[in-house]
Amino acid sequence: MDKENRTLDPRDWEKMRNLGHQMVDDLIDYWKGIQEKPIWKPIPEEVKKSLDEPIPSHHMDPQEVYNEFKENIFPYNKGNVHPRFFAWIQGTGTPLGTFADLMASGMNPNVTIGEHAPMYVDKQVISWCKEMMGFPPEASGILVSGGSMANITALTVARNSIKGENIRKSGMSHLDKKLILYCSTETHSCIQKAAEIIGLGSENIREIEVNEFYEMRSDLLEKQIFSDLENGFRPFCIVGTSGTVNTGAIDPLDEILRISRMYDLWFHVDGAYGALAKLDPIYENRLKAIEKADSLAFDLHKWFYVPYEVGCTLIRDSEKHRAAFSQTPNYLIQEKRGLAGGPDSLNHYGFELSRGFKALKVWMSLKENGLEAYKGMIAQNNRQAEYLGKLVESQEGLELMAPVSMSITCYRMNPGNLPEQKLKDLNREILLRIQEEGIAAPSSTLLKGKFTLRVANVNQRTRFEDMEILVRETIRIGKEVLSDLDFS
Ligand SMILES: *Cc1c(COP(=O)(O)O)cnc(C)c1O
């Protein structure tokens, strides 16, 4: 009998210690010098080839593995750690947040069940999230992988809470009326995905038209609910967005709240990006109705600058939350004492069973910075977006494409004499070159069919000067494109 004790632990602990130190050093150097480096660079073909290899079958020295990472992976990052990264809506992370993830991964608890400190850290972070969002202490919540998961978690609770029905048991097919969900035409695509997955069907989503500020029209919302009731449907939920992904628009949350109460509908807020704008005094009042929502989804990996991944769902009525998911199989019975004691298993509050210790990076970050620092950072991102808007307006040949809302600024170059198709070609080329030259990374969108550059700033490294650089480089590259391409 072979009694060799195999293990995956290091063959040489001291070598592993040194390698760990080197990783930390490399990260610190990377962050410290980040603004001097190009934001992005194309990946060479041989690098891509090195990432398309047969499965390794034998041991490789950890140092060599790391060297390969350093050569082929580390230099070709996405760029969202850089101060001029403004594409989509992507957070920067922080050094302590990163190291918290390292510690969380090293401790490696499965934060679902049991009497261990990570369970209490998770609870603590949920309490802080409730406090930040003005949810009552008796509300419940769960940390999930991100906004999409946070939204589907909340919508599942909404669906399972429909009065007089037991959808968990009977499913949807026996309902005599179709459930209808309301949102706006600007609502994030994850709401449609969620509605499809929880069995509503995309044809039972009513996308309400928006006004010139891209905000849901509550008059049309009410009309639609009325007509759905007349036609034998069963309205059940309205999703209001706090910070749309295109333009940072805020749906009329007070009005939606009023309408949801009047028709007895679940009021969910998708605040994946913009619920945290509540911490900026300029937005506090407009977002007050979040405190009255039945549920809220928001991301901590976007505007709370915590490394990927972590989002949060809050549910006003904790009993409904638990009733939507709780299950106790024989292998998950809780005890009053011992390792299987501890707080109510988190398995009762969401779909996922195994959960990592993502609470730690939020806990450490909040302790490190304090809430006041987040208020200051979020307000700064908003002021920077407004500053960019002013710069755009002050430049001949640039135009603002939507009112600046929260920290999103949409603009384009428009020399004034080009048809729409050429404006699209011009601005697309500006976008590609500004990224490829490693200067800055806006993204694009279509607003009323018009191609626009889109700058979303949830970046804790951005300085006001970066907005000046962005405008200056847009103009420089735009002029080059105009002379390079045939725009006659
Ligand atoms: C980003 C975003 C989502 C999706 O969140 P993920 O964390 O990417 O899953 C949903 N809604 C809005 C408004 C968003 O900005």
From TrEMBL:
List, alphabetically, the InterPro entries matched. Answer: Aromatic_deC (IPR010977), PyrdxlP-dep_de-COase (IPR002129), PyrdxlP-dep_Trfase (IPR015424), PyrdxlP-dep_Trfase_major (IPR015421), PyrdxlP-dep_Trfase_small (IPR015422)
Q: Which controlled-vocabulary keywords does the entry list?
A: Aminotransferase, Decarboxylase, Lyase, Pyridoxal phosphate, Transferase
What GO terms are given for molecular function?
Answer: transaminase activity
Q: Which Pfam families does the record match to this protein?
A: Pyridoxal_deC
Q: Name the protein family.
A: Belongs to the group II decarboxylase family.
State what protein this is by name: Aminotransferase class V-fold PLP-dependent enzyme
Tree of life domain = Bacteria
Q: What does the record give as cofactor?
A: pyridoxal 5'-phosphate
